[in-house]
């Protein structure tokens, strides 16, 4: 691995040069990663932002760090469906809660979020891992439920319910799978 730093004041052209070097080095058979010090706002992966520009230029991975945040974005060579359990295994072990967004077909205990205006069916009659429903329209739920129904407009109440029912969400780590 070869490592080179680019120094200069904001606006000097560092990002543009790095953005141009990525494909130039790739044409010569090199795999390129970028480490970005985000000393200003930590707004990432939007068009025009440095991390987005580096990824669009073809960087294999981009690591952005500030005094309070760190993110690693890696471009995968092949499409990979990550298991929620392999991703949880990557997290710091000292957290109290992991809030998983998506992975609706996982084997995790889940809280369904349902909005009447969205017009989609509910998942809970068919998914026995749904333990509660958070909605803005409890009277409009398309199917009756014995599950706890919470108000989407009161996240503090949802947090208290989670804490009161913490045992239902105790995580049992799964053995590592052979696929990422």
Structure notes:
By secondary structure, this protein is an alpha/beta fold. Helices cover 20% and strands 17% of the residues. The protein contains 4 helices and 6 strands, in the order H-E-H-E-E-H-E-E-E-H. The strands form 2 sheets. It has a 3-stranded mixed β-sheet with strand order 1-2-3, covered by helices on one side. A 3-stranded parallel β-sheet has the order 4-5-6, with helices on one face. The two termini are 25 Å apart.
Compact summary:
The chain has 4 helices and 6 strands. The protein is of the alpha/beta class.
Helix content: 10-25%
* Total of helices: 4
| Overall outline | elongated
Unreliable runs, pLDDT <50, ≥5 residues?
none
Mean of pLDDT: 88
Q: What order do the helices and strands follow?
A: HEHEEHEEEH
Biggest pleated sheet: 3 strands, mixed
Number of strands: 6
- Class derived from helix and strand content: alpha/beta
Taking the alpha carbons of the first and last residues, their distance comes to 25 Å
Instruction: Tell me the strand order in the biggest sheet.
Output: 1-2-3
Radius of gyration (CA) equals 22 Å
Strand content: 15-25%
What characteristics describe this protein?
180 residues; 20% helix; three-stranded parallel β-sheet; 4 helices; 17% strand; alpha/beta
